[in-house]
Design goal:
alpha/beta; binds fe (ii) ion; about 375 residues
Length: about 375
């Protein structure tokens, strides 16, 4: 099977790497940045600090702090307006998945024209986006290095998946020093999102030896470090390992794609405005229980990567060990046990399942499913 491997051209990583990243940004010769961030990072002064660091490199900037959690088509429109008005020649995204996705939408429309909903689907744009430098402050979505852009269309209450090689950032920056301020709940949710990326990519029908290597290393790093990062946010070794882990999981799913966990979680996020990582964490064991009949050996590898003694197990026992290890990690980092706690209503299950079956992420799930089976997984996760 042939495959194409997508990744940003330059990826700066490790404790204190933001300074090195600034030198690299200067060397591109940009003049003025639109810094896309959220209100929290703007109020905490982090966006201002990035603007100051850019100014030291003789680069002007303007801050757009309108990237909401689950960024919307309206957020993209507002940011695009400010970019044009301010005549910026590149975009810097600062934050977790929401600012990065919002920035991708802005940068893509800036060069291709039209509205972001025109680009829903796979590789629908014609031109490269405006150059995007993605500075990450969470350890989970990997949006700073992927070709995935998820924007909520508020008029339809759906999360649109824009999977487009042209939204790949020019450069990604992962400095764990920017991640220590993440609260426990966000650390847990984003870390479980990264685990979901790695597991879904590993059992994906589009997995390759490259994505397998990335996924298994990510799973081991998350299994060994997420509890530590949640317990003590200032544990820099755990933060750095989680930064590498989520990047590796990003390398895996950016190229092997995902599965029904994401296809279903996107619907919960779009319908109830729920945090993406928490939805994934609740659904992950239930979808893998559904998948186990077709990929037990692969799930056994997942269990082994999470530290389970699976060498003498049958594939079925190995798959169950993996699912138990996922449940145990989610419980230890205080993820809610079911979708009931998140506010999902059973009456909504048929429409959520119908929309999940239309989500492009489900195409590479190892086991096909119909409406009734997806509804059953939602109910099992209730
Ligand atoms: Fe995700």
């Amino acid at each position: 099977m042939s495959s194409t491997f997508f990744i940003p051209a330059v990826n700066v990583m490790g404790l204190g790497c933001l300074d090195e990243a600034m030198t690299a940004i200067r060397n591109y010769g940009f003049r003025k940045a639109l810094i896309v961030t959220d209100v929290g990072l703007a109020r905490a002064g982090v966006a201002g600090r990035v603007a100051d660091l850019l100014a030291l490199q003789d680069i002007a900037s303007v801050i757009f702090d309108g990237a909401k959690p689950n960024p919307s088509t309206a957020n993209v429109e507002s940011g695009l307006g400010l970019l044009k008005e301010s005549q910026c020649d590149f975009v810097v995204s600062l934050g977790g998945g929401s600012p990065h996705d919002c920035a991708k939408g802005i940068a893509l429309c800036a060069t291709n024209g039209g509205q972001i909903r025109d680009y829903e689907g796979v590789d629908r744009s014609a031109k490269p986006q405006l150059p995007l430098i993605a500075i990450n402050t969470t350890a989970g979505t990997a949006s700073e290095m992927t070709r995935f852009c998820i924007i909520t269309d508020e008029s339809r209450h759906v999360k649109m998946a824009i999977v487009d090689r042209n939204v790949t950032p020019l450069m990604s920056v992962n400095d764990p020093a920017l991640m220590v301020a993440m609260p426990k709940g966000l650390t847990a949710a984003t870390g479980m999102d990264a685990l979901t990326h790695a597991v879904e990519a590993y059992v994906s029908t589009a997995a390759s030896p490259i994505t397998d290597a990335c996924a298994l290393k990510a799973i081991t790093l998350i299994s060994n470090n997420l509890r530590l990062a949640v317990r003590d946010g200032h544990d820099l070794a755990a933060r750095e390992n989680m930064a590498y882990a989520q990047f590796l999981a990003g390398m895996a799913f950016n190229n092997a794609s995902l599965g029904f966990v994401h296809a279903m979680a996107h619907q919960l996020g779009g319908f109830y405005d729920l945090p993406h990582g928490v939805c994934n964490a609740v659904l992950l064991p239930h979808v893998q229980s559904f998948n186990a009949s077709v990929c037990a050996t692969r799930l056994t590898d997942v269990g082994h990567a999470m530290g389970g003694d699976t060498f003498r197990s049958s594939p079925e026992e190995g798959a169950q060990a993996a699912i138990a290890a996922i449940v145990s990690l989610a419980r230890d980092v205080e993820i809610p046990a079911g979708l009931r706690e998140l506010g999902m209503r059973l009456d909504d299950v048929p429409v959520l399942a119908a929309n999940a079956l239309k989500d492009a992420c489900g195409l590479t799930n190892p086991r096909a499913a119909d409406q009734r089976q997806i509804e059953e997984i939602f109910r099992n996760a209730f």
